[in-house]
Amino acid sequence: MNNVYYLERTANGSNQISLKTKLLEKRIIYLDEQINHQTVNEAIQQIALLAAEKPGESITMLINCPGGSIQDGLVLIDVMRAYDGIIKTVSLGIAASMAAVILAAGTAGHRYCSKSSQVMLHQPLIAGSIPGGNCSEIEEVAKSLVARKNQINDLLADFTGKPKKEIEKLTSTDNYLSADKALMHGLIDKVAEGKELYELIGGNAI
């Protein structure tokens, strides 16, 4: 999220406050940029801050994200699973690739999509061009990708409660799922609309 600011009027005048700060006050984290070292570090810092302020109180993570680094996304999932409280995940728009796994990593019973959202799953990809080098080096890259694929599929099987064979089929190619299909495959727990969605995104927080 770019730093968007607005004026909040108080009895003592007006203060310029960032939208992200205001959302954080309501225990809402917005993941809307590519998953990388910087964006994951920021999300982890926000979780740590909220955990210190009110241990165990629920956190909401809004997701509208094209995916990104598997390694960084897995670290964020580690932190989410370690948190001693509910982490609600809400897809707004698109949760693609690693962002779809993060969506599914929310606390069971508290994972949502808005009605028009999409969830996209696929196999791990090599960033950029295919690496050069000798046969052994390319083979090691391939082994690493296969290991990552198995790791992601194991996580998704755990999060969804579905057989790994079903997950492997689901991630075998670019697979765009509607909110209803994401629900059918166990990636979310509910399609949120109306008042429920309004409350998830902060209600009167802004």
Runs in which pLDDT lies below 50 for 5 or more consecutive residues are none
CATH H level, superfamily name: 2-enoyl-CoA Hydratase, Chain A, domain 1
Beginning-to-end CA distance, first to last residue: 15 Å
The chain-level mean pLDDT equals 90
Order of helices and strands: EEHEHEHEHEEHHEHEH
Tally of alpha and pi helices: 8
CATH topology: 2-enoyl-CoA Hydratase, Chain A, domain 1
CATH C-level class = Alpha Beta
Residues in β-strands, percent: 15-25%
Shape: globular
What's the quaternary structure here? single chain
The chain-level structural class is alpha/beta
Give the beta-strand count.
9
**Major sheet:** 7 strands, mixed
Q: Work out the helicity level.
A: 40-55%
Alpha carbon gyration radius:
18 Å
Number of folding domains? 1
* CATH architect. name: Alpha-Beta Complex
Plain-language structure description:
Helix 2 (37-53) runs parallel beside helix 3 and helix 5 packs across helix 6. The two termini are 15 Å apart. The chain has a single domain, classed as 2-enoyl-CoA Hydratase, Chain A, domain 1 (Alpha-Beta Complex). The mean pLDDT is 90. It is globular, with a radius of gyration of 18 Å. 44% of the residues lie in helices and 23% in strands. The strands form two sheets. Strands 3, 4, 5, 6, 7, 8 and 9 form a seven-stranded mixed beta sheet that branches. A two-stranded antiparallel sheet has the order 1-2. The protein has 206 residues and is of the alpha/beta class. It has eight helices and nine strands. Helix 2 links the parallel strand 3 (28-31) and strand 4 (59-65).
Defining traits:
two-stranded antiparallel sheet; 9 strands; seven-stranded mixed sheet; alpha/beta; 2-enoyl-CoA Hydratase, Chain A, domain 1
